[in-house]
Amino acid sequence: MPFELSPSSINLFLECPRCFWLEKHKVWKRPSAGFPTLPSGMDRILKEHFDRFRDRGELPPELRNSECRQGYSLFQDTSLLREWRNARKGISWKDEEGNVLRGGIDNLLVKGNKLVVLDYKTRGFPAKEETYKAYQHQLDIYTFLLRKNGYSTENFAFIIFYVPKKVTETGEVIFDSELVKMSVNVENAERIFREAISLLKGPCPKEKCEWCERV
Ligand code: SF4
After folding, report:
1. Residue 201 domain-assigned?
2. Residue 14 included in any domain
3. Is 115 in the pocket of ligand 1 (CB under 6 A)?
4. Which of 18, 42, 138, 150 makes an SS bond possible with 122, Cβ 3.0 to 4.6 Å?
5. Is 30 close to ligand 1, i.e. is its CB under 6 Å away?
6. 57-108, pLDDT tens digit by residue?
7. How many CB atoms within 10 Å of residue 153?
8. Domain, as residue range, for 182
9. In this predicted model, what pLDDT tens digit does every residue of 44-69 receive, in sequence order?
10. Interval between CA 212 and ligand 1 midpoint (Å)
11. Residue 184: its pLDDT value, please?
């Protein structure tokens, strides 16, 4: 039976192969602790913010003051971007056995004839080196998917972190932004995808945590 994976299911695979196996075989789904709505609300307004500048053929100020100020523009194909941003559709690729890898991106930059993944993240505090690493697989996967769909990409991607800074006298919340450039490794994305699929084709991993022991 073919499986469908995404960056979040790949994260689950890396975190607990047993939970991943049980979820993908529809035995159980790990209970969710509830999802904070602020990051998804921020994602939505950031997309609108970037789209306004894209329609004017400009970069938003947080990119204009970075290394992107020269030679970069926002991806202009709005219908493709709408599809790729939709988590249910996203950018996808099917392996030779019909297993699918799918991911919904935030945005793309264009540099010459190459695409560069741009992901937005909202955080309560400034990001540290370890924080960047937590997003490595996600960026590898998005870039891998673009290449598998025939697009040329750079060997790097950007994350832009938004962190609340202060509240003005008039009640507006001001955010700081930090643009982080990260190398991407598409071979890594393909290797993890294939490892995850091969685990799903085998028996359920036995290793348990204390939560598993309780059921
Ligand atoms: S070991 Fe823990 S995390 Fe893994 S499947 Fe069991 S409950 Fe889930």
Report:
1. no
2. no
3. no
4. 42
5. yes
6. 999 999 998 999 999 999 999 999 999 999 889 999 999 999 999 999 999 9
7. 20
8. 38-188
9. 999 999 999 999 999 999 999 899 99
10. 5
11. 97
Instruction: Judge whether 18 lies within some domain.
Output: no
Q: From ligand 1's centre to the CA of 201, what distance in Å?
A: 19
Q: HEC profile for the chain?
A: CCCEECHHHHHHHHHCHHHHHHHHCCCCCCCCCCCCCHHHHHHHHHHHHHHHHHHCCCCCHHHHCCHHHCCEEECCCHHHHHHHHCCCCCEEEECCCCCEEEECCCEEEEECCEEEEEEEEECCCCCCHHHHHCCHHHHHHHHHHHHHCCCCECCEEEEEEEEEEEECCCCCEEEEEEEEEEECCHHHHHHHHHHHHHHHHCCCCCCCCHHHHCC
Residue type, 68: C
Torsion of CA 56, 64, 39, 139, to 10 degrees: 100
pLDDT digit string, tens, across residues 1-60? 899 999 999 999 999 999 999 999 999 888 776 677 887 888 899 999 999 999 999 999
Number of domains in the chain: 1
pLDDT, residue 144, reads 98
Judge whether 3 lies within some domain.
Answer: no
% of the chain with per-residue pLDDT over 90: 80
Which band of pLDDT confidence, cut at 50, 70 and 90, is reported for residue 215? low
